[in-house]
Amino acid sequence: MNTTPLYLTHAHIVLAEQELHDASLLIGADGRIAAINPESGGGAPELSLSGQWLLPGMVDLHCDAVEKEVEPRARVLFPLDFACINIDRRNAAAGITTPYHALSFAHAEWGVRNNETATELVRALRRLKAQELIDNRVHVRYEITDLSALPHVLGLLDEGGVDLLSIMDHTPGQGQFKHLDSYVAYMMGNHGSSQQAALQMAEEKMQARLSADERVLAVMERAKQRGVPTASHDDDDPQRVLTMKNLGARMSEFPINLETARAAHAAGLATILGAPNVMRGGSQSGNMRALDAIHAGVADCLCADYAPATMLAAVDALVHREGLGLPQATRLVSLGPARAAGLNDRGEIAVGLRADLISVARPGGQAAVERVWCGGKPVFAVDYQGR
Questions:
Q1: Which residues, given as ranges, of the chain have pLDDT below 50?
Q2: What residue stretches are annotated with the Amidohydrolase-related domain (predicted)?
Q3: How many helices and strands, by DSSP H and E, does the chain display?
Q4: CB 3.0 to 4.6 Å from 57: which of 7, 176, 236, 356, for a disulfide?
Q5: In angstroms, what is the C-alpha Rg of the chain?
Q6: Residue 302: strand pairing partners
Q7: Same domain assignment for residues 146 and 46
Q8: Distance between CA atoms of 357 and 373, rounded to whole angstroms?
Q9: What does the alpha-carbon distance between residue 369 and residue 362 come to, in Å, rounded to a whole number?
């Protein structure tokens, strides 16, 4: 990777464990961080950040916003390549340099959430590699009650099209939907289903759940063979956490309650919570507040879930509203998720790592991304100071 060296000065650099005030950083020609607080830039062009935060580029393990780019309204689909380009730009502007686009394989549940469309969207994201601004990756969400999804998921794993796999079970009566009424309300409100269609889908899920164990074993084994990290989803009790760990899961997405989050953390599974939950101060489904897990010390990662812009906003809220240290809050969107996914070349500002960096201004008192570098290359810039 060849980039133009750049000398960033007068920055508030946020390292994994400390902050450096009025500091400097040198991006090397190889797209990596060459030095922190060097004596000089060695002739590289200089850019003053005027005291802005300089954070590591954010790593988002779970965001399904690409689905809304494809289907902004129920059953109104845009071309897949067009949607992929748009989500790439949107994540760059949000300061997310490594997004894992979460795609649900749940046949007929929603327009874009059917197996054929989801499969083609995975391939469209792969085609984006030649022109992407950031490092786009694919998170396949396998709904275990979908009898027809398994060959699609196994095929994509064999193609090398999957970077992260999560196991989902949205059967009413457990997990995210403790009661049938909450499932029906979600399907009607979010996906435009009729009440009758939602009830029918709930019944189909409950029947398919009876035969799901064999499918889960098959997909987890294939992911292991292909070296793809795996996560459980909506864990609702410690026993489920241990079951998924024994199957090879390394992460627990959206644990339903604090007891389960504690169990996942203690078992060595990285816990993933929603940045929108932090911003809003609670869960949209009435489950655990992400803040409770953070304050209890059992939160490892924040993800955008469905709104990329909430990642930085959550860091800002944790620092200015909740009193967390800036390094601690930043780790939740950078080093924590990078390590959970096995990415050892990014996630913090350190010499030798990728120069995935974001500078943060505060126009109107709100944290806002001003500049983004991915692998040392500038991919987004807006001049708040000059306005």
A1: 174-175, 387
A2: 215-379
A3: 14, 16
A4: 356
A5: 21
A6: 273
A7: no
A8: 5
A9: 9
CA gap 172, 163 in Å, rounded = 28
User: Which amino acid is present at 168?
Assistant: M
CA dist 1 and 180 (Å) reads 52
Same domain, 250 and 364: no
Full domain range(s) for residue 35: 6-55+347-381
Per-residue b or e along 265-290, where b marks 16 or more CB atoms closer than 10 Å to that residue's CB: beeebbbbbbbbbbbeebbebebbbb
Q: How far apart are CA 297 and CA 280, in angstroms?
A: 20
Q: Exposed (0-12), middle (13-18) or buried (19+): which is 213, by Cβ within 10 Å?
A: exposed
Q: How far apart are CA 212 and CA 167, in angstroms?
A: 11
* Beta strand spans in the chain (E): 6-14, 19-27, 33-36, 46-48, 53-56, 58-63, 96-105, 137-143, 164-168, 230-233, 251-253, 270-274, 301-303, 357-361, 368-374, 377-381
**Region of residue 269 (phi > 0: left; psi between -120 and 50: alpha; otherwise: beta):** beta
The residues near 28 (Cβ < 8 Å, ≥ 6 apart) are: 3, 5, 34, 355, 376
Task: Let me know whether 145 and 211 are in one domain.
Answer: yes
Which of 148, 56, 70 lies closest to 103 in space, CA to CA?
A: 70
DSSP string spanning 20-85?
Answer: EEEEEEEE-TTSBEEEES-S--TT--EEE-TT-EEEEPEEEEEE-HHHHHH-SBTTB---HHHHHH
CATH number reported for the structural domain that contains residue 209 in this entry:
3.20.20.140
- The per-residue pLDDT for 233 is 93
Measured CA angle at 56 (ends 28, 296), to 5 deg: 155
Residue 274 backbone dihedrals phi, psi, to 5 degrees: -90, 130
Whether 17 and 114 map to the same domain: the answer is no
